[in-house]
Amino acid sequence: MPTQPPVLVASDLDRTLIYSAAALALTMPDARAPRLLCVEVHESRPLSYMTETAAGLLSELGDAAVFVPTTTRTRKQYQRINLPGPAPTYAICANGGHLLVDGVTDVDWHTRVTARLADECAPLEEIRAHLQERADPLWVRKHRIAEDLFVYLVVERELLPEDWVKELAVWAENRGWTVSLQGRKIYAVPKPLTKSAAMREVARRTGAALTLAAGDSLLDADLLLAADRGWRPGHGELADVGWTAPAITALPERGVAAGERILRELLRTARTPQ
């Protein structure tokens, strides 16, 4: 009897499946708060969590589908996450700049990505220099270059001028880059550097018949649009602007409860894909 083509699930991690303490949004009475599982430790401190129920759902999802963690994190940042369930064969890091296969970078994929960036976008150094010149040390805490692919700032949101990000986005647009504000981070990312392109590559390699996706930020929009079905939580950039599309489900839950709901939806759909 022929086997069914697999279902591929590509999901963002931060503020989609896993949550920092500040992003948990535990609005219920303390006695009714869910039990939490720590899934990331950084510098000997717990950093990211999911509910224990969500952890069980993710373990089941890893058995029911090809689960692909899909993140803007660098490889080093991703590798300190300890997700429950079977170790994913594929992971997408650096917003699609690195495709990991059994934890190892696929060199051919990375070479293809960097060649396209060189052809279509202003160089990284130009963007970095502009940010160094225009970002005020009064509200910038860190300048970071990620994997020699994109740049981001860590900022004090309450001190950030209201229109600064919009003005940066206009400047970057003309140079083939896109800008996204996520929490305390302002990202500048080359337009061709997308999670969706890497997801399509994994779908091609696995022969997936159905692709499912989840994410909360503007950097996830292309991933959600490229999937057959997608889900976004009730928080994050996409929720803030009321973003939706025909195959996208906008969930009402916010914070860590949204992560649990997203996993329920992904698992249910993966098991009954009709």
From TrEMBL:
Source species, domain of life: Bacteria
Keyword Hydrolase (UniProt): yes
InterPro entries per record: HAD-like_sf, HAD_sf, TPP-like
Keyword terms, alphabetized: Hydrolase
GO molecular function list: hydrolase activity
Record Gene3D superfamilies: HAD superfamily/HAD-like (3.40.50.1000)
S-adenosyl-L-methionine recorded as keyword: no
Name of this chain's protein: HAD family hydrolase
Lineage per the UniProt record: Bacteria, Bacillati, Actinomycetota, Actinomycetes, Kitasatosporales
